[in-house]
Write a structure and sequence with these properties.
This protein is mostly helical. The chain has one domain. Helix content is about 80%, strand content about 0%. Helix 5 crosses helix 6 and helix 6 runs antiparallel to helix 7. It is elongated and about 75 Å long. The relative contact order is 0.17. The model has no long low-confidence stretch (mean pLDDT about 90).
């Protein structure tokens, strides 16, 4: 079966739903990372808190609390890295047994669908999980860089390098957090992509629900109200 014939196994709605998933995934990421000035996202607010954290670290003695925080952040990224690796392995195993998936689908009255269709649908989930895996790995590495720079911040606040190095550590932490959040969003949309196994309409619905959940958490959640109550001194 040539590629054109294989692609014909998917309907126009399938292609539209997949394109919608990718478009919403990219749009919500841009909206969260580049919010309007009068309506910052939780991620944007937390970036300012990270800058304030590093400023406070300069005068904090001892700095055990700061090292514990960075260690916790690295553990979180390591956990999600391992989780996505396991999920990717499971997805690859499903592709290797696509015929069984087709059999199960037939039992659930989902029609006589060729194994190639199931392989492509599972592959879409795997690609999103792979993106998440790469983001989590990079976030873990950046938090490591951040911890090293934090260790180089002078203990004396009067040292001319104290606050510039603290600012460097803050930007590394912000970049790491951005990568981590991108990994989480890719994971959310990978779960939405799994709905494609049930059809194009479920994929559209899952994409909308995922986008709504992410938007609410970033722009209309109670945690955002708490952060906006007493914004950091460095907030724009």
């Amino acid at each position: 079966m040539i590629m054109i014939e294989r692609l014909s196994l998917f309907s126009a709605l399938d292609f539209a739903a997949l394109g919608f998933l990718i478009g919403i995934w990219l749009w919500i990421g841009w909206r969260i990372e580049s919010p309007a000035a009068d309506r910052p996202s939780v991620s944007f607010l937390m970036a300012d808190y990270r800058r304030l954290w590093m400023e406070q670290m300069v005068t904090r003695q001892p700095r055990m609390f700061d090292s514990a925080l960075v260690g916790h952040l690295r553990q979180s990224t390591a956990f999600f890295t391992s989780a996505t690796m396991i999920a990717i392995g499971g997805g690859l195993a499903m592709i290797g047994n696509a015929e069984r998936i087709a059999g199960v689908a037939k039992d659930f009255a989902l029609g006589e669908t060729p194994a190639f269709v199931w392989e492509i649908k599972v592959l879409a989930v795997i690609l999103l999980l792979t993106n998440a895996f790469l983001k989590f790995v990079w976030a873990n590495r950046l938090f490591g860089y951040c911890s090293v720079v934090m260790g180089s911040v002078p203990n004396e606040p009067d040292d001319p390098l104290a606050y510039p190095r603290a600012a460097q550590a803050a930007e590394l932490s912000i970049t790491a957090a951005r990568s981590f959040n991108r990994g989480l969003r890719a994971t959310y949309f990978a779960l939405a992509a799994a709905a494609w196994l049930a059809g194009a309409a479920p994929l559209l619905a899952a994409t909308l629900i995922t986008a709504a959940v992410l938007y609410r958490r970033e722009f209309a959640s109670q945690s955002r109200e708490v952060l906006m109550g007493t914004p950091p001194n460095t907030a724009k």
